[in-house]
Amino acid sequence: MSWKKHLLITGGAGFIGSHLVRLLVQKYPEYAIWNLDALTYAGNLENLKDVEAAPNFHFIKGDITDAGFLHDLFSRQHFDGIIHLAAESHVDRSISGPLAFVQTNVIGTVHLLEEARRQWADALEGKLFYHVSTDEVYGSLGETGFFTEQTAYDPRSPYSASKASSDHFVRAYYHTYGLPVIISNCSNNYGPYQFPEKLLPLMINNIRHRKPLPVYGDGKYTRDWLWVIDHVEAIDTIFHQGRKGETYNIGGNNEWKNIDLVHLLCQTMDGLLGRPPGDSASLITYVRDRPGHDRRYAIDASKLQNELGWSPKVMMAEGLAETANWYLSNQGWMDHVTSGDYQQYYERQYRH
Ligand code: NAD
Ligand code: DAU
User: Fold this and answer.
1) pTM assigned to the model
2) 342 pLDDT exceeds 90?
3) Which CATH number is associated with domain 5-191+225-253+292-314?
4) Which residue, 88, 225, 229, 258, has fewest beta-carbon neighbours within 10 Å?
5) What value, to the nearest 5°, has the Cα angle with vertex 307 and ends 305 and 312?
6) How far is the CA of 87 from the centre of ligand 1 (A)?
């Protein structure tokens, strides 16, 4: 089969990456989708079981911090586009161990940019390096206001500092070498397949096991939540229709204080589990705050909405119920992830 395009997706075994790979594999049977992932603790091929046999899906196990590996890959395989999601993504881990974030998010991104620059040196037409980034690069908001694409960078955690640095490198390759790039900066995603160290799956799992629900600080930190499939649809739209050299903010226009969101989740879970009202909320426990905790994020996504016609489709009540239902209906997935069993899946699946 001759493919219309070869697309390299990095980090496609993670939370957002697996939703993106699924969408691309199913929506574009004429594209070859190459999923490159190191399968760190956050990468799980069980997330992609439903598409792993598709003829246009290919998996490559590899680490973007390994320059030699990347060089070999790009010497063997031509790519028309790269959508780069591979990253260390958890703020709390970045506080306990920042160097892994520098390695993957900064150095790994620069290795990838170098290979794209080398491979596309003579023919930039039709090529695109799409970098998936975060609203956290903009820092922390007060009670009012929104992040726009013009907001000055002000990262305040090792995670956001490493993502900000990678964004700067991507823009530097656009200005210095003319590499065709696009960056999008998105707010907090939620939905199926999220690793249970992040707020919502952690709370769902703890409610299921009647364990304390740890709310950091006063619980009044605010995040702008987006259904993960709305995010990957935005990436698809921007990848195909976005303007080169541009940045697009993506957000849900859906702000929640953590404590209010946890209460809504508790109500939803009580309903699903047949527990009396207030049962799950009695597990809420205020715990020590995250150091340097950003108070509020809120995205102004009007550029994306006005230019490319994207807007979020799934509202919070619906998305949260679907999320809670998914984790309860896929307890095997959660049990594999929390026990570490999912890490043997690669050996079983790919040993030949
Ligand atoms: P995740 O932690 O669930 O997945 C990251 C994936 O990258 C994993 O599959 C992991 O194995 C892979 N990976 C890590 N280091 C690697 C390396 N050195 N080489 C190759 N692969 C490696 O993350 P996520 O939540 O899906 O986030 C994906 C991207 O989106 C990240 O770049 C993140 O910064 C960004 N983002 C996330 C959110 C969110 O709410 N989760 C919001 C905005 C932006
Ligand atoms: O804003 C986008 C970012 O959202 C992404 O770039 C990151 O990759 C992603 O992890 C997420 O970062 P957050 O730090 O906002 O997500 P997290 O789920 O870790 O925390 C959400 C909020 O909930 C935050 O204010 C911290 C708080 N929290 C988190 C955990 C894990 C708690 O109160 N208790 C917890 O146990």
Assistant:
1) 0.98
2) no
3) 3.40.50.720
4) 258
5) 20
6) 4
